[in-house]
């Protein structure tokens, strides 16, 4: 405790005034010769003790009044712990939430712009010589790369910061700035977290991460004060496009592709006529209206036919609400002219399209329109070749090679096949009665996902069958069957199959993966990456000899999706999550030439195409901002990549006030809601807490009590 | 030698003469019904004759007139009150209090003037009036007479006496009771300070002896309102050495309650014994107060 006006403390002596007045009055009494003593005596006798006590109380209160007045005018300051900061410079780290949930707001002003303005004021108002660092939690980067004392530059750069980024992970952000804080030199340190307290940003249920991060921050050699600044409002309305599903993994020119958008209303108000628009390459193609109840989910189905090959962008957008980050979702679709699939028939029939041949059913399933003479385009263009006639030329022309019941291949062919897969081609292998485990486990072992074991079951008509295990499929070729509306693999019945030997789990990325299993646990489909391509092997035959596969409705999508999945791996992924690095493969002729990368905020980056193997590569790792990244290499054919954010951020639910308070309380954090509160808090830390208001309240209370007591003592309470 | 003008101002005397008629009626009020004087002839004075009408008592016929004129006449007499009143004046120390609002008039001075006024009135309507003064015991006793010269005796006594000593109404009244041989009107002029129970008991005693009693209680405004503010030492007027140094504001409330209780017990006791208790305050003219009381009393008849 210290005082701003120490001189006024002399006024404490005024406390003696009431005492002097009391003694003066007592000594300067007047004498009255009194007749009615008998009335007075009894009163004096019964009340003497009480009067004495009351007089002492009144005297004490009256003495306290001038003392309190003097204290109040001396302006006492209270501060806990060590000395006050005064005007000394500080090291300030601000964690600013710029995730897209911060775009919510009121009256046209988003929470983010408010928070950013407050941060600019805060940084601008730091004491001269202070160093500061502002970290954007959604973007996961600092406004400037390192702490600076040039606060003007920091403020200027901060003014350009925007929101709309992915989820703000507060524990991770705190971890991030702990190191930065440790590098700062000023002895007085503070960390200020400006956030909307979205529930996903604060994993308070798994408090450990946040607690540990805070502990590490607090355990720095110079412990900073940590302030949580709640900039969120009570905006609860948000409609999000949660995900897009495509009916095809690989889209061909002239093919009808169905796009299913999953919409979700997080708000409490239903949206009876929500307008949903499909844009392709920025042009509006289709519009529909959907009723979306409060807290409900819904799906919208669009279909589109791409008329030219190349990279296309599909966007599904809803009517704008304040949180614009999830109002639309983009997907980059590479559209192909055709996808060449080479069917290598190990047991050919009379004609290539003979259903008795090993590949007859598969040929129809892969190109159904061509087989049915329908005037619609098949993406997949099949070519059937007997295993005996297979040459390296056949392989070079295809995107996917299917080996059906092939006994052996010549060494040259096998080598060509290995090279084909290594460069990114897809190989799909089906077993059969001609399949030779010795060749498989010998010459073919490099490509084979798993060694082949014994044959199981009999292909006879009455033989017992084995089904495919109904499970959740992770592989993109099969994941459509997770939705029962798309059919099921469990109606497959296998009479005979080869047992794959169990895979050795080494933890390497090229470990074989079991995509689906049979009812007894034997692998049904296994996949192994090989070079840049992949090999998928099936335990049974492609035709109807060993199973009922070709007779089931799921046969067509399984075969088609296995082929397209194998073919689609040629390109590096074009639909990414925030933070994942972008990789563009461009034709070889662009190598060494400039390429222009357009970012979601319309800014551009000039890059040069690097050569790698048989194609050129452009890489761009900074993908914190969601949206469309378009690369135009020198040949002028654009490639689109889309970066989407985790839709968990769309949930506008925030921590409740009591949860926030508990959080602050349990970790010893300060909590503010406005700039005024922060300023008041800062003032207390710098200069201590002024107590004159309390002294004034005390003074008024004492004056009031004195008046009351005097009235009461003079009027009531006396015994007669 | 004391003269009535020493006690009563000419304006008061004028006021009193106006009161005569009033007083007359009031006193009749006291006396009617107990006019049983054994000395009948003294109390009857001829007024007029009037013709006999049926219903008149035969014994009231004037036989000598009948013998002279052979007509029946009734003799009518002026009735006389033959009132014997005794003024009992308190001379105790507490009566010496002169408050700030009374203009220096002590309660005793006020009481003597009231006594003089009453005596004057009584004598002037030919009623007997006596005076007894007392403090702890009876200090003087003048029996009632109705002669005009008797007024001087009373006024002399009033002038002579000075208040002092304690009030002890109960014992004094018992003592006095023995001295009052005949029934009459007792006018007690006192502040009635002292023990209420013994005072009321003594009054009851008087009532038992069939005396009519009027208590004129003399107050000072200070005693009724206790207006003191600053620290004050109250020295007792009746007992030496009894002093109270106090802040009067702190005690006013309880004093007022105590006072109210005291007055209430007096009023109840007097009402129970059918005694008129008339409070007088020294800051209001006694003639006015007396007139007001008498008017009230008349109205009650």
Provide structural commentary.
The complex is a heterodimer of chains A (720) and B (301). Chain A is of the alpha/beta class. In chain A, helix 6 links the parallel strand 9 and strand 10 (225-230). Chain A has 5 domains: 2-79 and 691-715, no CATH class; 91-235 and 653-687, von Willebrand factor, type A domain (Rossmann fold); 239-335, Immunoglobulins (Immunoglobulin-like); 339-568, Class I glutamine amidotransferase (GATase) domain (Rossmann fold, 3-Layer(aba) Sandwich), CATH 3.40.50; 576-643, Immunoglobulin-like (Sandwich). The longest helix of chain A has 37 residues, at 37-73. The longest helix of chain B has 25 residues, at 248-272. Mean pLDDT of chain B is 80; it is low at 31-43. Chain B folds into 2 domains: 4-32 and 81-300, Rossmann fold, CATH 3.40.50; 44-79, no CATH class. Chain B has helices at 4-7, 10-31, 63-69, 107-124, 148-160, 169-179, 196-208, 221-225, 248-272, 286-300; strands spanning 44-51, 73-79, 84-90, 128-134, 138-145, 185-190, 212-219, 232-236, 243-246, 276-281. In chain B, the strands form 3 sheets. Chain B has a 6-stranded mixed β-sheet with strand order 5-4-3-6-7-10, with helices on both faces. With 301 residues, chain B is α/β, with parallel strands linked by helices. In chain B, strand 3 (84-90), helix 4 and strand 4 form a beta-alpha-beta unit. The chains are: A alpha/beta (720), B alpha/beta (301).
